[in-house]
Request: fold
Amino acid sequence: MNAATDPPPAPAPEAPHDLDALRERLRDFAAARDWERFHSPKNLATALIVEAAELLEHFQWLTEDESRALPPETKAEVATELADVLLYLVRLADQLGIDLHAAAAAKIAANERKYPADQVRGSARKYNR
Amino acid sequence: MNAATDPPPAPAPEAPHDLDALRERLRDFAAARDWERFHSPKNLATALIVEAAELLEHFQWLTEDESRALPPETKAEVATELADVLLYLVRLADQLGIDLHAAAAAKIAANERKYPADQVRGSARKYNR
Amino acid sequence: MNAATDPPPAPAPEAPHDLDALRERLRDFAAARDWERFHSPKNLATALIVEAAELLEHFQWLTEDESRALPPETKAEVATELADVLLYLVRLADQLGIDLHAAAAAKIAANERKYPADQVRGSARKYNR
Amino acid sequence: MNAATDPPPAPAPEAPHDLDALRERLRDFAAARDWERFHSPKNLATALIVEAAELLEHFQWLTEDESRALPPETKAEVATELADVLLYLVRLADQLGIDLHAAAAAKIAANERKYPADQVRGSARKYNR
Reply:
């Protein structure tokens, strides 16, 4: 094999590299199973919080320090819960026709204006209301 | 300034186009404000579910059909809540050293194996437990 | 055994008839196991929402009509989840020194003032914001 | 009026002293406003978790120690959130025909069997899974 001249491998189809690819794959997944009828925004927002709680459950009795140093098997379970939240989030945005990237960019910009670094540094405004 | 002949503006730097860019921007945001100490995984998982509930609140008294046809101003508010969930999700994955894209790809693949389209189509297995 | 003349059985000690009795029993339960140190208000509020999500999970893919007619085994599971929420609620109020009955009575009175029956009847104010 | 000699006021009728009285009052409240149609179990379980999140929000950035020593105004707000959770819990149990006290008593008894005090004391089983 000649790494210099061989064409690069095609991206694995099962590894979407951005949220748009994820959205398409979830759309196909639901369509192939005839599950769109369950995926009303109300139901998806409900499923999302149920997954957010399964994520939180891993941390509920831990100290903050313990939560920074999860054992490997817990970390693997947490990764799966993070994925579940992301999948429902992408699916919900799709059903509502909302561009997640644009919404996230707008929110970060709003936060940067709301909490100017030179004014809140060290003061923990927002956190000590 | 001549709008007709000026070159188009460069893409706004505040519009990350993928989760990696989002992660970097959130990392800078927290560092510039000295807020890392609040961002333990336990606290971020808590903040995430609080945002998931603010999202859900928009749907709580709607019928499923109503949730599919939000008025524009509600949709804009929902977009902001979706963004909040995504920001905490990306920040939490970063603090835990978890690759969100890889986790999502693994979970979709697992779901595809768990619910084969040719077996569950029309039967709504999973939904009628 | 003579049902007519035997004294009535003592109330079962395991059936608290009000929230105060429940609070006392939960206090004893935690003390006997040396679990108070886990029961910070922050942790209890987290445990409460995790249980609220386990409750909600039973309803997430149901229609509203289906949720009004649960099969008996689902209803039994839901009863257990309702109990879990109540136990953490009572425990949290106790740890904070809050009188749940007084708080509930105050909130109902506030709701009655906020939504006068003769003004909101049929208009579904609150629900159509 | 002579405060020193007047008889004490009768207990306010709006202060229910147990969950049964609370249930009746909430039933009247919804009926008087024609709000039963919004109160499907699915919707009430959703409203409950939204309130649980508003409760949790007060604690999200606090340390556990800080959560044990809330300032008075925060404590008053938390009391209102606890009340909101309780009201939806009682209303949901009523709509499902579930006896909350019986469910709570059964769950405590189950916990006492599951975590025998002489075996778990000091070991924090359950908390260190």
